[in-house]
Design brief:
- By secondary structure, the chain is of the alpha+beta class.
- Helix content is 26%, strand content 25%.
- The strands form 5 sheets. It has a 7-stranded antiparallel sheet with strand order 19-20-21-22-25-23-24. Strands 1-11-10-7-3-4 form a 6-stranded antiparallel sheet.
- The longest helix has 25 residues, at 482-506.
């Protein structure tokens, strides 16, 4: 669509009661990012109250009409998705504005391929809009959904703001109060919004009894109250609602990472578990147990159930789950492993679930039967669940979906690694409604991580792994060998899973960096990577932790059986090289002694050495010819396993361990090299 154009959603699809709005962009450095926000506006073009403003610290509407679903990696970068249930949007809301803002002095002109798409409930794209004229703007309205009579329409807006989130918010009556010494609005406002929302959760919502599920909640101060001079610009309540109390929620319950002191006499005492697994003997037992445990926990813990179904088009509502349901199919009924049903406003959303554990593959013919059954019975989705990790958001099995049918069925895939990741995010970082739910999720996570559960995520590099490794060793692997492409695909799945595990530990999203331009063919990209594997014997990837600019490079050299994890650290402009080097070594005081440190100079690599050798002689890192020092490269080198599985000696485990060691041993201690105020270098 062109800027300013509009179209009726009903004219594009018969299934637009719920839509998924996606905002995407790419960055040449892999570090570009933005925060998505949604505003619900009345007929007067203003928000009705603070409840109509949704952003990273207020991601979902209580009625399920709006939910920020977070980022997901794509072929061309990152994509932020927003679920909008148009049937649940209050009648007095006339427009839904979708925007994004940048922070830290970044501008939208630094990003490429700015785009917005709207898809129907089944995930079928309906309309798209690209912004091609971004430059110095720090906030953008991408588009809006608006009512016209009984239908909803989409308008491509593309309006930018140089004043960031503050300027955008003011246009819609989110009042901005400028305090003395306010910082840059594009940065300060976002930080202040998070500060104010965090204060509402941490300080204003107190319980007299933390275990009382129905404890009374005191009224909170209006959103945007400044603490004092020097606070940045803060969006606050519209003038007409400023006297009302802001909506708050109960303080969320999280569990500590470290368990309390055990009362066991010795290590042979095993704690009682809600979901015991040592007795599981067969794959069938593991599959049945895993399905039942997962679906039961989803139904009992609303936060997990909603999180796992929202991305698949499921609405917010009352959820019930079932196992081993018999459904008619010709002469022989079929029994999917599970059924999920969600009721909202008298309507039912239904998904059939097919589960595999212990690395067993999904069978395309079986999934095809469930898709056909779902289409005949008017169900909305089929969800496959296995140890495999989907690439590019696509299903892991090929089935035929008849697009001629009036009722569309969407096919989605979920990995056990993703289930474990979402569970860990809830109980370690984001919290759930009460302590009982937190304990239940903890037991569920213990079950998933037990070696006998069969729910261990991606754990096999595939049948092509051994012949490709042998071909690299004896130099017989020829460019164009299709087995190399299969190994590259397995490598991408492994990196996706490494990101899930690392993100669950940190409480931040970790995403693979995709440097390909939008519209590039994924197969062509993998073929190019396979050619590099055949000629150089290396698999490479990059990943970035959300909110940071540093990119972690991972290189697995199959010729030497070593994996390298590294990061580049730029040197501050105008600093003294020796002072900068000394400061770097001080920051790395607790890093592993075998960390390799290499100085970077213009157009070449400089001196290098291990941290153990450089600590007493930091000047050894300085370029000898007086070349300009531009930064440093920090690298850890670890031997890799050779087997294709997930055993201790396997390749998958060694790569996962290498990334974890690098982050916790190096990046966690690495601050900034910027000189302190009043000093140079």
């Amino acid at each position: 669509m062109q800027k300013g154009a509009n179209v009726s959603l009903n004219a594009l699809s018969e299934d637009v009661g719920s839509v998924v709005v996606s905002l995407g962009w790419t960055s040449a450095s892999g570090a570009g990012d933005a925060d998505v926000s949604v505003l619900l506006l009345g007929e007067n073009g203003k928000i009705r109250s603070e409840n109509d403003f949704y952003f990273y610290n207020n991601p979902a509407a209580p009625d399920g009409s709006v939910q920020l679903l977070g980022k997901t990696p794509t072929d061309s970068g990152d994509e932020d998705r927003i679920g909008v249930d148009l049937t649940a949007v209050p009648g007095e809301v006339a427009r839904i504005v979708v925007a994004a803002s940048q922070y830290g002095g970044a501008r939208f002109g630094d990003l490429d391929d700015l785009r917005m798409t709207v898809a129907d409930r089944s995930g079928e794209p309906l309309v798209g809009f690209s912004i091609n004229d971004a430059s110095v703007e720090t906030a953008f309205i991408f588009g809006e959904l608006y009512r016209r009579g009984e239908e909803w329409k989409f308008r491509a807006v593309g309006q930018g703001y140089e004043t960031g989130l503050a300027g955008l918010a003011t246009d819609f009556d989110v009042v901005v109060e400028e305090a003395d010494g306010a910082a840059d609005s594009a940065t300060g406002t976002a930080d202040a919004v998070e500060k104010v929302a965090g204060a509402a959760d941490e300080d204003l919502v107190k319980k007299t009894d933390e275990n009382a599920e129905n404890a009374a909640e005191p009224a909170a101060a209006p959103m945007g109250t400044a603490d004092g001079p020097g606070d940045p610009a803060v969006p606050v309540l519209p003038a007409q609602t400023r006297g009302r109390s802001a909506r708050t929620t109960r303080k969320k319950v999280t569990l500590p990472k470290a368990a309390g002191k055990t009362l066991a006499e010795n290590d042979s005492w095993r704690p009682a578990r809600l979901f015991p697994v040592p007795t599981l003997k067969s794959d069938r037992e593991r599959e049945v147990r895993a399905t039942s445990v997962l679906l039961a926990v989803m139904a009992q813990v609303p936060e997990l159930g909603r999180r796992l179904t929202a991305g698949f088009g499921g609405p917010a509502g009352r959820m019930q789950t079932f196992t081993e349901v018999s459904l008619p199919h010709g002469e022989t009924p079929r029994r999917p492993d599970g059924v999920i049903r969600v009721e909202r406003a008298g309507k039912l959303w239904t998904a059939l679930v097919e589960t595999k554990t212990n690395g067993n593959p999904l069978r395309a013919e079986q999934v095809q039967e469930y898709v056909d059954i779902a289409a005949r019975r008017g169900y909305e989705a089929v969800i496959t669940l296995s140890n495999d990790v989907a690439l590019d958001g696509a299903p892991v099995v090929d089935v035929k979906i008849d697009r001629r049918r009036k009722h569309k069925v969407s096919l989605w895939h979920l990995s056990w690694a993703e289930v474990a990741h979402q569970t860990q995010m809830l109980i370690r970082h984001e919290g759930v409604a009460n302590a009982a739910h937190a304990w239940l999720l903890q037991e569920f996570l213990e079950y998933l991580q037990h070696e006998n559960s069969g729910c261990h995520g991606f754990q096999n590099m595939g049948p092509s792994w051994v012949p490709v490794r042998r071909g690299i060793d004896d130099e017989t692997l020829a460019i164009g060998d299709p087995r190399a492409v299969e190994v590259v695909e397995s490598w991408e799945r492994l990196i996706r899973q490494v990101c899930l595990r690392l993100g669950g530990e940190l409480g931040q999203k970790a995403l693979p960096v995709q440097r390909a331009r939008r519209g590039s063919d994924p197969l062509a990209r993998r073929v190019a990577a396979a050619e590099s594997l055949c000629s150089e014997g290396r698999l490479t990837a990059e990943l970035r932790i959300e909110g940071t600019e540093r990119v972690i490079a991972v290189t697995a050299d199959l010729r030497t059986s070593k994996v390298r994890t590294s990061v580049d650290v730029p040197a501050p402009a105008g600093s003294y090289p020796l002072s900068t080097t000394k400061r770097l070594l001080r920051l790395l005081a607790d890093a592993p002694a075998d960390l390799h440190v290499e100085s970077l100079v213009e157009g070449a690599n400089g001196p290098r050495g291990t941290l153990e050798r450089l600590r007493p002689e930091p000047a050894d890192l300085l370029p000898k010819d007086g070349a300009q020092l531009t930064g440093f490269r920090l690298t850890l080198i670890k031997g890799t396993g050779t087997t294709r599985g997930n055993a201790e000696s396997g390749f998958i485990r060694s790569v996962d361990d290498a990334v974890e060691r690098f982050h916790h041993g190096v990046l966690a201690h690495l601050g900034t090299l910027e000189a302190r105020p009043g000093r140079r270098g």
